[in-house]
Amino acid sequence: VSHGFFDVKVAAEDFAFNRERTRLYLGIRVVEGPRYSVSRIDVEVDGPGVFPMSVLREQIHVAPQTRCDGTKLEEDRLRLQRLYADNAYIDARVKLNPSVAFDRNEVAVIFEITEGEEFYVEAIEFRGNEDSRDIVLRRELTIFPGEKFKYSEIADSQSNLYRTGYFGEVRPIPEPGSTPGQKNLIFDVKEVVTGRFLFGVGISSGQGVLGNVA
C-alpha cells in the first residue's frame, strides 16, 4: 500500500506439514492490482500563514501524474516539518492525508499543516552530567538563551556534545518556559567512562613486595 498498490490482496494458501510434522510449508499468494497515481497535491494550513504557499510547495518533490510512493511522500512531509522546526515553530505538525479514488486508480494527496506558535529559548540546562561541568558543555553550544528555537542549531549543538567523547547519549528536550512564546531547552545526557585508575599490590617470596599502577 505504501507504494500505491491500494487493491493488493494477500492470502495464505497451500500449507502442509512434512512427514515428521516439524516443518510447515506455506504458500502466500499476492495479487498486486493496479498501481495508483497521484492526481493532485494540496496544502492546507491552519494558522497565520508563516510561509508563502510557494515556499511550502518547494518542499514537496512528489509531482502530480506520477506513481504514488509512500516513502517519497513521507520525505516531503518531514521536509515541511523541518522547515517549521528550523524557524522556531517547533510545535508545528504536518499530517499526510491521502484521499483514494478507487474507481480511477488515483490518489489526491493533502498535506495538513497546523502551524502553532513561534518560540524563543528562555534558558538552557543540562541533566545527567555528574562529572562534566556546565561551563565546559556550554562552549559546545551554537544556540543561546534569547534566540529563536531552531531545529538546525539544536542538532549542531547535539553533534558538538557527542564529539567531546564524554557522552553516550545526548537528548534535547523542550520544556515550557515561564512566559508564553518561550521554552527551556534541556540537554539530557548520559556520561561514559573516559578514564580509569588501577592500583595493585602483591608479595613474592623471591622479590618481596610488588606493586603496579596504571
Question: What order do the helices and strands come in, and which of them pair?
Answer:
Blueprint lengths: L8 E9 L6 E8 L5 E10 L6 H6 L11 H16 L7 E9 L4 E9 L5 E8 L6 H5 L12 H13 L3 E10 L5 E10 L7 E6 L3 E6 L1
Parallel strand pairs: 3-5, 6-8
Antiparallel strand pairs: 1-2, 4-5, 7-8, 9-10
Determine the fraction of residues in helical runs and give it as a percent range.
10-25%
Shape assignment: flat
User: H/E order of the elements?
Assistant: EEEHHEEEHHEEEE
Compute the separation of the termini in Å.
60 Å
Number of helices: 4
Compute the average pLDDT. 90
Fraction in beta strands: 35-45%
Report the structural category: alpha/beta
Unreliable runs: none
Radius of gyration: 28 Å
Number of strands: 10
Biggest β-sheet: count, sense, barrel? 3 strands, mixed
Strand order of the biggest β-sheet: 3-5-4
What does this structure look like?
The chain is α/β, with parallel strands linked by helices. The protein is 19% helix and 40% strand. Strands 3-5-4 form a 3-stranded mixed beta sheet. Strands 6-8-7 form a 3-stranded mixed beta sheet, covered by helices on one side. Strand 9 (199-204) and strand 10 form a beta hairpin. The chain is flat. It starts with 8 loop residues before the first strand and ends with a strand.
